[in-house]
């Protein structure tokens, strides 16, 4: 049985966290990850499986479900849960313990081509993350071959705009409220400086 | 010193009239910024109608300190910065909300004005020892509109849990019918010509320190222990 068939025969599975729940401490506490991964992310996966059971969406890849339901008002619940399941898996990989610092040369070159400097890129990403009103996400994404900063509301993602996500920061309040309360800007600065996984971002250029 | 005398003194000190709103005494009102001469009237954060720990254990003092002292304050402050020197400076908050609604290039003004209004309304929608039995015309309207008080609570809870992302759930009056509506982010029934009677904030900042992911538990505590039905009844037209 091919991998694709194996996947199509099974429900969506909560992807393992790529590090321990306390690995991002003190920037993101183990308590926050406990709820964020163990309750919110798991909740989206479970809801999606319940909503998709017995429908054409059962057994589809997340990407296919997202593409098939984006912008359809009567499919909003499936879209929201599928996109949030995808976004969170992508978010966990966008972070790592002892992240931040300098991106690999190939990514840095692309960043400088698009933003001028790494600092300008980080600043634009931070501004997008701070100004996303309400719940949502800030992204670095490839639009054709150019890097862009994008912000999306609620469950939305660059995937629905024909762009390729490179990295993301979750700015739903549940991502930072236990640790930073109203100080979203402090959370974003700490994530960009100390947790961003530039190696993962570089892999997404391909 | 009574609140009225304090208010009168404040008016005399500021030498600028307060612009009264439909319900004076609770809504965010423009008044002079202390310490500024010739300044345009700015909105002030309205006083919380109870102590910050008064809604314990259902809403913690810690939650209130951030929610009222940081979030609500920030919406008022940001709004004042955004409208300084514009025709909206000194206008009633409800007018700013109504006029900035549905104008994409005014989203920041609308978001902050509506959030300033929504939060002031939310504080009034709760009281210590709230959630008592309904009576009078409001009970009649609830029974007529929802089929019973329990059915209303179910509809309100369902809407609150189903509001995806940040937002609000409301009880509104539409003629002689009551409805439960939910709104996204800063959106508010007032911007759509609906008469709000009651609201519960379902932005995660409203409950995350106390309930984390358990929004439903927060909404049930709101309905059972905090709702200020007298305020809701006072809003009936």
Structure commentary:
The complex is a heterodimer of chains A (206) and B (237). Chain A is mostly helical. Chain A folds into 2 domains: 64 residues, Helix Hairpins (Orthogonal Bundle), CATH 1.10.287.990; 99 residues, minor pseudopilin epsh fold (3-Layer(bab) Sandwich). Chain A is 50% helix and 11% strand. With 237 residues, chain B is an alpha+beta fold. Chain B has a domain of 99 residues: minor pseudopilin epsh fold (3-Layer(bab) Sandwich). Helix content of chain B is 46%, strand content 11%. Chain B contains 9 helices and 5 strands.
Protein topology:
The complex is a heterodimer of chains A (206) and B (237).
Chain A (H helix, E strand, L loop, with lengths): L2 H7 L20 H23 L9 H8 L6 H19 L10 H11 L2 H14 L4 E8 L2 E8 L10 E7 L6 H4 L3 H11 L3 H6 L3
Antiparallel strand pairs in A: 1-2, 1-3
Chain B lengths: L2 H12 L15 E2 L10 E2 L17 H23 L9 H8 L6 H18 L11 H11 L2 H14 L4 E8 L2 E8 L10 E7 L6 H4 L3 H12 L2 H6 L3
Antiparallel strand pairs in B: 1-2, 3-4, 3-5
Helix pairs in contact in B: 2-4, 3-4, 5-6, 6-8
């Amino acid at each position: 049985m091919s991998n694709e068939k194996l996947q199509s025969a099974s429900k969506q599975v909560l992807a393992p966290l790529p590090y321990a729940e306390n690995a991002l401490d003190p920037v993101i506490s183990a308590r926050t990850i406990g709820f964020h991964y163990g309750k919110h992310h798991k909740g989206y996966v479970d809801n999606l499986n319940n909503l998709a059971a017995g429908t054409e969406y059962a057994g589809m890849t997340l990407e296919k479900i997202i593409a098939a339901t984006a912008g359809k008002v009567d499919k909003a619940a499936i879209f929201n849960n599928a996109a949030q399941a995808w976004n969170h898996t992508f978010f966990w990989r966008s972070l790592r313990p002892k992240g931040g610092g300098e991106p690999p040369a190939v990514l840095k070159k692309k960043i400088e081509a698009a933003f001028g400097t790494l600092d300008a890129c980080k600043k634009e990403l931070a501004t997008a993350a701070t100004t996303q009103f309400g719940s949502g996400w800030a992204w670095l994404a490839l639009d054709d071959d150019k890097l862009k900063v994008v912000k999306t509301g609620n469950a939305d993602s660059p995937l629905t705009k024909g762009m390729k996500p490179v990295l993301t920061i979750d700015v739903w309040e549940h991502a930072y409220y236990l640790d930073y309360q109203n100080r979203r800007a402090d959370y974003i600065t700490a994530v960009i400086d100390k947790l961003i996984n530039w190696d993962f971002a570089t892999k997404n250029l391909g | 010193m009574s609140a009225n005398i304090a208010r009168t003194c404040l008016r005399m000190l500021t030498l600028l009239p307060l612009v009264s709103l439909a319900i004076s005494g609770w809504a965010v009102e423009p008044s002079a910024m202390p310490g500024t001469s010739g300044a345009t009237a700015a909105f002030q954060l309205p006083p919380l109608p109870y102590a910050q720990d008064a809604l314990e254990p259902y809403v913690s003092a810690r939650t209130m300190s951030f929610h009222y002292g940081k979030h609500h304050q920030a919406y008022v402050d940001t709004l004042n910065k955004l409208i300084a020197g514009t025709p909206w400076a000194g206008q009633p908050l409800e007018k700013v909300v109504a006029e900035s609604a549905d104008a994409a290039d005014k989203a920041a003004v609308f978001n902050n004005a509506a959030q300033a209004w929504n939060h002031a309304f939310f504080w009034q929608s709760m009281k210590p020892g709230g959630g008592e039995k309904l009576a009078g015309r409001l009970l009649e309207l609830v029974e007529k509109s929802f089929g019973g008080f329990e059915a209303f609570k179910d509809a309100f809870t369902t809407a609150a849990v189903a509001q995806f992302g940040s937002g609000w759930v409301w009880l509104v009056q539409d003629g002689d019918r009551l409805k439960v509506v939910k709104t996204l982010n800063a959106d508010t029934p007032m911007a759509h010509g609906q008469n709000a009677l009651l609201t519960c904030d379902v932005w995660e900042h409203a409950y995350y320190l106390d309930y984390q992911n358990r929004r439903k538990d927060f909404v049930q505590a709101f309905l059972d222990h905090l709702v200020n039905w007298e305020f809701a009844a006072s809003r009936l037209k």
